Target: HPr kinase/phosphorylase
Amino acid sequence: MTTEISPTIHGGAVWVDGAGVLVRGPSGCGKSSLLLALLMADRPASRLVADDRVVLAVTDGRLYAGAPEILAGLLEIRGQGLVTVPYLSPVSIDLVVDFEPPEQCLRMPDAADQTASIEGIALRRLVLPIGQADGWIRVRAALAFRSAIV
Model:
């Protein structure tokens, strides 16, 4: 059974290292730049799911993200505009990335801070400081060292 949560949310999503990653944060915080960095880090294997607007749905107890039809395959690159990239939609979400102000990002988060709940589904969560360029490698580390995040 599939339940669509809302028409769309403001955010982005990618398929990277065999996992779906949902990226959330305020406007202008670097969501599209993070998506671009993740895509460029492994162009043959990574795929855009959605940029700017994401359709979320729950199917069989899993959260799925997809692209609104009008935005499918489009990625905004600041200073370049919209570009067409290979995409995959929908995908099951394994990790939620939230951008927050640096002063709110804990150096050693506890288990509660490493979990996001969306429609009652508990998902692993990574908080990234707005304005730092190394977010893409932190996301890849979170995926590579999955067992370290509880």
In short: The helical segments are 31-41, 135-144. The mean pLDDT is 92. The first strand starts at residue 2 and ends at 4. Strands lie at 2-4, 9-16, 19-24, 47-59, 62-66, 74-77, 81-84, 91-100, 115-118, 121-129.
